[in-house]
Amino acid sequence: MMKTYTVKYKDQVIAQSNDIIEDCGTIYFPLSSINYKFLEKSTFRSSCLFKNTAIYYHVKVGKEILENAAWTYPDPDPEKEEIKDLIAFVDELLK
């Protein structure tokens, strides 16, 4: 039986799936498992030598915001193609 991974913030389910990809200890969720009403695009970007540029999102529930708590690699290095367009979250949100 596959484990179901859940991302929660302020008692709200932000993402949930058993169809995840784990890369370097980070859990990546498919886009279909994301509740986008809780994500707000951030202007923050970061760069990884192996994954290229990450685009970040704030997780927002009501007036509570966890800044830059989710990220995705829309154009990863070809060796990391399996994480393309998947979304990862900070560990503290994984349940």
TrEMBL record:
> Known Pfam families for this protein?
NTP_transf_9 (PF04248)
Q: Which InterPro entries match?
A: DUF427 (IPR007361), DUF427_sf (IPR038694)
Cite the DUF427 domain residue spans from the record: 6-91
Family matches, as PANTHER family = BLR5716 PROTEIN, DUF427 DOMAIN PROTEIN (AFU_ORTHOLOGUE AFUA_3G02220)
Name the record gives this protein: DUF427 domain-containing protein
The organism encoding this protein is Flammeovirga yaeyamensis
Task: Show the taxonomic lineage.
Answer: Bacteria, Pseudomonadati, Bacteroidota, Cytophagia, Cytophagales
